[in-house]
Amino acid sequence: MLTPALSNQGSYRGRFAPSPSGPLHFGSLVAALGSFLAAKSQQGKWLVRIEDIDTPRVVQGADSDILHTLEAYGLHWDETVVYQSQRHSIYQDVQNHLQSQGLVYACQCTRKEIKQRGGFYDNHCRALNLPFANNALRLRQNFPVDSFTDQIQGQVHIPRNIAWEDYIIKRRDGLYAYQLVVVLDDIDQHITHVVRGADLLEPTARQLGLFKQLKHTAPRYAHLPLVVTEPGLKLSKQNHAPAIDKQNPIPATLAALRFLGLLPPKDLNSADIEDILKWAIASFSLQKISKVAEKPLSDAY
Ligand code: GLU
Ligand code: ZN
Question: What is the pTM of this model?
Answer without folding.
Answer: 0.93
